[in-house]
What does this fold into?
Amino acid sequence: MELTQNLHDLLSLRAELVLTAVILLLLGIELFSKGNKTLLRVVSLTGIGVVLILLFGESSTAQKLFIGSNGVPLMIIEPLGTFAKIIASISALFTILFMGINREDSTMVRREGEFMVLLLCTVLGVFFLSSSYDLILLYTGFELLSISSYALAGYNKRSSQSSEASLKYLVYGAASSAIMIYGISILYGLTGTTNIFIIQAILGSGALSGALLLMAIVFLLAGIAFKISAFPFHFWTPDVYEGAPTHFTAYLSVASKIGGFILLLRLILDLFFRKGFNSEILQPVSDLPWNDILIFISIGSMTIGNLVALWQKNIKRLLAYSSIAHAGYLLAGIAALNSTGLVAVLVYFAFYLLMNMGAFLVVILIKNEIHSEMLEDYNGIGSKLPLYAIALSIFLVSLTGLPPTAGFIGKFYILMALVNADLVLLAFFLFLNSVISLYYYVRVMKHLFISKPEKELGEAKQNVYGGVLTLVLAVPTIIFGIFFTPILRLAEAALKFYLP
Amino acid sequence: MSSFPMLTLLTFLPIIGMVIVMMLPKEKRSLIKITTLVATGLQVVLAGFMWAGFNYSQAGINNPATFQFVERIPWITFDSGSWLGMIKIDYFLGVDGLSAPMVLLTALISFIAAISSWNIERSVKGYFALFLLLDTGMMGTFLALDFFLFYVFWEIMLLPMYFLIGIWGGPRKEYAAIKFFIYTLFGSVFILLVMIGLYLSVNEVTGEGATFHTFNILSMMNPSNYTQDGILSPFNPDNLRFIAFIGLFVGFAIKIPMFPFHTWLPDAHVEAPTPISVILAGVLLKLGAYGIIRFNYSIFPEITRELVWWIALFGMINIIYGAFCAMAQKDFKKLIAYSSVSHMGYVLLGMASLNEVGLGGAVLQMFNHGTITAMLFLLVGVVYDRTHTRGLNDFGGLANNLPVYTGFAIVAFFAAIGLPGLSGFISESFVFLGAFKVESIRLLTIISAAGIVLGAGYMLWTMQRVYLGKLNEKWTDLKDLDFREYTMLVPLAVIVFLLGIFPSIMLDLMNTSINELVNQVTKTDFHSIMSGMK
Amino acid sequence: MTYYSLVFWLFALITVGSAFIVVMSKNLIYSVFSLLLTFFGVAGLYVLLSADFIAIVQLIVYVGGILIVLIFGVMLTGSVLTEGLKTNVTNMLLGSVATGALAGLLILLFTNNNLYPNTQVLTPVPLKDISRLFIVDYLVLFELLGVLLLAALIGAASIGRKEKV
Amino acid sequence: MTEITLYHFLVISSLLFSLGLYAMITRRNSILILMGVELMLNAANINFVAFSHFGNFGASGHLSALVIIVLAAAEAAIALAIVLNIYRTFNTVNADEADKLKE
It folds into this structure.
């Protein structure tokens, strides 16, 4: 009878089931209709659309699923997880849209179906990562995301760069997830279970050794740090971002990161900290230096990311380092360990989706025209491809965090959380980092608008599809910089069960 | 007043212009220029209407009821339950005797800079779009009464400025542009952090009795609005207010620019095209001083009182150091840039006096420096257009074949020196009168007075080198001013004369507010409230 | 010394010793074959922990699958990568110190915490329990693993197959 | 000699884990790092099974070990595919440029 209950619960995972169905459908189309591209695109886009509708439908409810014999659920569909799922789905949607315009490798077009299948598998991984309350299930979701990503990073098969990038990604990804599972095994040893609720209860009783627990947490954080490309597990980022096909890089920089962050949030909110707030501050269940660890990783990430970005000549590498720095900013928001920080992280992430996806989109569009990702070849783009150049500038300004763009609001809320948590020095440091980052972001704009091109740009011209897509991302970047209430509301709703 | 959104229109008129410019095709250069001219021209007209409708007896400063042309619309209202209370950001514009002169200055200088931009040839569309965006940023900064709004406008100015210097500037434009950008953004770090700290420390009460944090700077000026545990609250025993004051001060001082944060200014000026130099010297530098008066002085009066000696000291250093540097320059534009540093020193000195005369002098000096320096940069631009050199030693005897031009130059130079009868004299003497009255900074004032002599020295020397003596043979066929140049220089010269003879035109406008400001700075007691509540 | 502990020490030696060779050997071929021994050793340890089923799976999947894959990898990359089969070692000092310290710390922490000190013969977990847990309680995990293997299959096929130009 | 307890197994797992980590830190060869990863995964598995055995936690440790073995296999499959592809790319495109991406 438990089985029937569980089977029934399985049917409640509506979004996940639809996603799986779409994956299988795509596979079928790929096999039996010789990869009819229009059909593939229509099916995948509608599929994600349906998934998004389902997600928005359940975005304010909570539902416990797979309650086992020990009385605790294996999964809970709740708003925070749904928020992460929405972010991942939207970025997948854009990635599929970007795929059509990326002309890096001719064989990629032929294998579009496989790309979509794997892409949706990563989305499914994020879905399970977002709703699971069992460490083994979480880890499996994490691996589904990772394994599909390794394959996708090497998708540009004819470029040795892409293959090397994916090998590197796989090797270090596997290593860091092995470290993570070792941490889980210690936690299992200490508590005798992999269920988050039971572990939290046991930790809450305070019967456990601090040092071994700390060890387990450090190991767990290693895996997460890898996924969100935070210091000291950031080193793979530039190579993989550069080598992977650009539309997947865009996806990786957003969806993979939200996967890591949702896991971190889950562990913090449900495992290592007491539920609920005491005077708006989160209380850890045992005396561990959470604050120090998070601040250390945060400062390390933003400093390394920003300083090394200064020397980059390739725009994708530059954006890779910038994404390391952004992981640092986001972690700073979490390090505040207060309610404002949580809201800030979600708000930041929503905006990060827009601006980072947008930046990579323009990189694809420009590469299509000039066949280069090097900054020195960007000279004179501003007059030749003005729309792309202006859009890229908007995204970069937003990444810097200047008003009136969305990035400013995100940074503003993180700073607010830090000041609220009396972490003024970290706040200062964060902003100092933005000043450093300004230098390299502006350098891109300098190449776009100021520097004179050495050679004629020739036939480069803008196309309608690319233009519309850039506007779809660029316009909200500005609008949300001025009217950001909806996103605040969204973030607050996502944290419905956590905020005081 | 009326429901007519005067200030919104004043602020966003250039944006409308910008949108029109963006929609015009690239090739319609004159149409783009005319659009810009119309937009800035209308702005001047609107500023004039604002002036005409301005009630001289209302003080503003810390009282929302006495601000004029107030527009207050809730911009972001978000009740977050308990995690951060209610978030409320207002679109809050208003003008008082402190900002009114700056608004007039901004409108005027923008219009003149627009005329001066007529001979821009390279990517006209981009230039004027950015120019208009910059104009909106400046105007909004002076009018905003909500800190958040202020910050947004403050930052909006950065990017257009970067590009205006970086694309249309001189040979080292990229370096100068990024230096300007980085310096100013670095200053913004402090401003933003202090803003957040203040926001979290200040509570406002709605009509229904609910309290919420606020960005309203007028509420920040009232000690009784502070919460008990706010990070920048006077009740907070850590007393971070001192650090906050310093941070905010540095943020604004970079823009003034105050020694030792001034090094971006000469680079920016030398590389910027003439109209941008005019805007930079005419308006942007004032933003720093305006910020200090509006924010530091009114929100942190108790710390201001402690630190006046230091403000005066830096004022003195600016005056003397700027003058010496100016003396050593061989580049015409760099000389004016350093003279700006020196002249902004007077503003600081006047501010340090904390009395009606000195502060009035400081604000008047801001206005006068704006017009005079704008004129000087235009004059440099005139010869640069004709000769493509700015080396002081390349000229000589220009008076011989450019008599009218030299006439304007003499007016501007003498005004800058502070010759009685011209506007510079009034404001400088007010500054010194005010500062001299204060015993603690009297010595600094006396030393600063040497700056007048130095100023006269380098200005006269420059005049001699450029305009007097034998005419350099290279320049025998230079033409005198054309019509466009007249339209730029004449209004400025008229203002310089007018304010030299009837300073009350401006003084009356700001008098009430300055009195209230002095009241706010010297009387508001954050300490006693603190001890009283404990 | 009991029979049990004798066998334990044997397997422990095989496991750790061969793992040491895997990591330290400069020749990839040696490494990969030592790894075979490690896998056997670990399987033995599972048997000692009365986890027979895991031991069998370990042998089938690790030795029969993963190891073969690794040997393929070694053979293929050997002729491609410049390092060849002899691979160089970097950060030796840092690596040894750091991992030595980590090992010491872990052992210290594990042994100093009074974790489950019982040594009496424990009842082995019946296979039925494992399968029941898998199919009933962790049904969703089971399904997810299916999708994951599918993804791995598609990914491997997509990356690994030869493209017609 | 003492009786075999949980600690004995934990010491082995610690050593395996550290050796795996050592490979990750000191080696540059991808295949070797992958072998190190397998060591680390085995270490985690020993933990799961040993804890489950000595702590009498029932089948959940075994379940975890099984899942990890499956995941390791999936990872290895992808790894082989990528290595194959690299082999092909280098052989057909440019055999002498082994390391295009710089550190």
Observations:
- Residues 24 and 30 of chain D are 9 Å apart (CA to CA).
- Residues 60-92 of chain D form the longest helix (33 residues).
